[in-house]
Amino acid sequence: MGKAEMFDRTLKELLFFFIMTLTIVLNPDFAWSDQSDSQRRVIFVVCDYLLPEEIQLADLPNLREFFEKGGVALLNTNTAGARNRQNAAATISSGNTALCTPAEPLAFGAGESYRNEDPFLIFQARTGITPRPENVVVLDLPYIQWANIKDEITAEPGTLGDSLHEAGLKTAVVGNADVPGKSMPQRAAAVIAMDRRGIIDAGDVSEEILLEDPRDPLGYRLDYDAVKKRIISLMQHHHFIVIELGDLVRLEQTSQYLSPAVYHQEREKILREYDAFIGWLMKEVDLNSSQVYITSTTPNAQAVSQKRLFGFIAVRGEGTATGLLTTPTTRRPGIVTLCDIAPSIASYLGASLDSSSIGRPWRVEPVSDNTAEMLEIEKRTVFASLLRPSLVRGYVVLHLLVLAGLLFFMLFDPRKVVHLTPFLLGLIAAPLALLLVGFFPITNIWLYLCLFLLLDVLLAVLSICLAGNKDFDPLIILCLATVGVLLLDTVTGGELQRYSVLSYDPMAGARYYGIGNEYMGILLGATIIGHALLLQRLRDYPLWPRVLVGLFFLLVLLVLGLPQWGSNFGGSLAAAIAFSYTYFRLLGIRLRLREVCIGFLLAGLFGGGVLLVDFLRPPEGRSHFGQFIFSLHADGAEAFRSMVIRKLSMNYKLIRYTIWTRVLLGTLLTLGILFYRPVGIFRRLLTENPAVAAGLSGGLIAAFAALVFNDSGIVAAATAMICPAATLFYIVIREQEASL
Predict the structure, then answer these.
(1) What pLDDT does 548 receive?
(2) CA 271, CA 112: separation in Å to the nearest integer?
(3) Contact 655/640 with Cβ under 8 angstroms?
(4) What total of structural domains would you count in the chain?
(5) What's residue 637's pLDDT?
(6) Membrane-spanning residues where (predicted)?
(7) How does pLDDT run across 662-699, given as a tens digit for each residue?
(8) Structural domain boundaries, residue 720
(9) Cα(163)–Cα(267) distance, rounded to whole angstroms?
(10) For residues 346 and 324, what is the distance between their CA atoms, to the nearest angstrom?
(11) Where a domain ends, among 306, 333, 368?
(12) Residue 358's domain is classified under what CATH number?
């Protein structure tokens, strides 16, 4: 090659470099869009009203394969209001439980008309923001913001979209659930992709992507060819694309006009169309640099009527594997929340959410038969949720009947009161029986009830058979066995508590792990009265039993309070106060102001230590109260005020409506009456058994502290009194029997 040719080539290269540099400087969008093609992408497919069991149908091979090869989980559908599509979309968009509009929000693209007006002009008038022609806008953004502020909700819909825009990423939305001419536009999915200004970068939510056919039972259905063209175009430059497949929603809206046969025929047809679309999408997306989500954010009316309140979600693509999704929010493989979706998407795309988001990114726990496992979790959880109200109500009614019978016989026919002792033992044994029945994966109500009653009777009989002293030993055996099994289950993952009707309900979403308030109260009451009875039995050994009891109190405190185990901060504070009081009484230390201050100081130090340990953990490993300390650090007094209001509101609501209020009031009333009638029996019994007296007063302190420090404190207070009160009634009956 000659020098002239080399010079000519070099000149051309320099000229090309100069032109490219000038183009980038004068047109930044050119550089941005060129860079964006190398970015990761998330395709988020919304299939609301799809049922979990339908993904395993034989004629849906693409859906079935997607779930079997992906990370899957049930989806807690809690929002700050009703479980509907618009609130679910606002919650996903916020990363926090949020409110949306009463009806589905209005979202439009350029060229559409709303009541013969230009939606973009309406949006500009409402927000002061001028959208670009390619944007999609949410007209109801000001109302959405006002609704959350009015109800003092910290969520900010649009948080996900804002975080993606701040990271230089673009959003898009395609699809709707409209039934033109019959209802307002159904475009809730647009809220998922919007930013805090109510803007999505691009998309199509218009009626142009629908096919009209008067002979079709739906009247309108999705035009998949048009949708595919929009998606292919958007995937070139957009990083978060929400796709709403709305035909199942359209079907539900018109179901009352269809015969059952036509309804099921149309549902099967829609599912086959969904399946074909998923098959097409998986061929178009590069899973080495993208993630695809399929989710049903809202259960349909039929599922809600059956108390099946879970949605579900699956994800495939880069960084995923076959298994169950799990997140620090729930710590339950196979269950995540709406709030976890935004952090997971933002984390994958390299964006970050602000402190208003409470969800956490998920990971996949490998499980081979993941879909079957997810469906089994749903089946057992729904069964426990359906059974819980009836069984708890039955237990409470029996408890109140035993109390009424006790009062009647003690006052009018003392000789017959002895017949109530087996029932008192059964009441004490019931929480343990309800825990142990979780060993068996039963979802038949009659089999479950028979097994529960059998276990309850066996535990009561076994406690009598093993007892050396019939006055105290049956009670000691039942109380300490309950404490032991609860502690063991908690430190080994809480498998028994997950499916106990006396535990928390993950569909309700108040708690997903640790020790719930029902069993927290049981644990406090059984620990205090069980060890008080033990010391009464071992009163001839003054030192070592008291040392062991102190160590066991400390063990219960640690298991109850530490975030990796019980994770019940309010319960640990109540326990610290009640245990300190009880232990001082058991040691024979007279409680004066100094001892009371020491007790509160110890409780405060323990609580502060638990919070510090949790706060210092990595964000993805913090419990809910560790996250609260983080929000307190970020938002200051406002976060504390919000927490106090929430707890007071919850306690007020539960005190008025929960059946456990009757247990607490009935127990306290019975204790009050028996303290005075028959004359002297209570006073004599407590004087002769000072450890039992310490246990009873410790149980009362535990109940009061649990009421104060927990947002469902009335429940914990009621269950905390079950073992101490039933124990005292049992001993009174034995004393009465001996005196006759």
Answers:
(1) 94
(2) 29
(3) no
(4) 2
(5) 64
(6) 392-411, 423-440, 446-468, 475-492, 512-534, 543-562, 568-584, 596-616, 659-679, 691-709, 715-733
(7) 999 999 999 888 877 776 777 888 888 899 999 999 99
(8) 377-739
(9) 37
(10) 20
(11) 368
(12) 3.40.720.10
